[in-house]
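Changelog-adjacent note: as of this version, every example in the card shows the full chain rather than a window. The one below runs 187 residues end to end.
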Amino acid sequence: MSDDFILDTDDLARRMDGAIANLRTEFASLRTGRASSSMLEPVQVEAYGQMTPINQVGTVNVPEPRMVTINVWDKSLVGKVEKAIRESGLGINPQLNGTIIMLPIPELNEERRRELSKVAGTYAEHARVSIRNVRRDGMDQVKKAKGDGLSEDDQKFWEQEVQEMTDSYIKQVDEALETKQAEIMQV
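Full-length structure tokens:
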């Protein structure tokens, strides 16, 4: 192997991008006091014998800043959609109007804002751990190559590459968390 070792930094970057993408999805599910169709993305409905995302059983709209509506296509699923929303932990009380389910978004109180801010912090920590795991994998590949004859200078170069990439992704997580927490705490 020796001097022709090339670490697959594209693979490491792809895996770290996955951690960032997952973090953004988790952040989108956190309510900030404003209506957003993305807040319903994690909610699954038992429809036709399998778990289905809400946006696949009805049309999700945001007609005003504090209201989300779901126009359920199949009348027989209205009750199941309502139940799924109640049990989702979003803290929203659905109101039925025929096949339309209205979700008024209540104003967040200070305690709930702090709670959501902590949840956002937990999501960010999970993303950091995922990124560090990818870093560890990269460092292990470099150490293995060292055992196969990689020069010490090359080893230091690749370790520095992996560390710089890790630092850059951790910074992205921290910035995303800061933005989300500011959004949550905004009254």
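Structural remarks: The chain has two domains: 2-27+109-185, 34-104.
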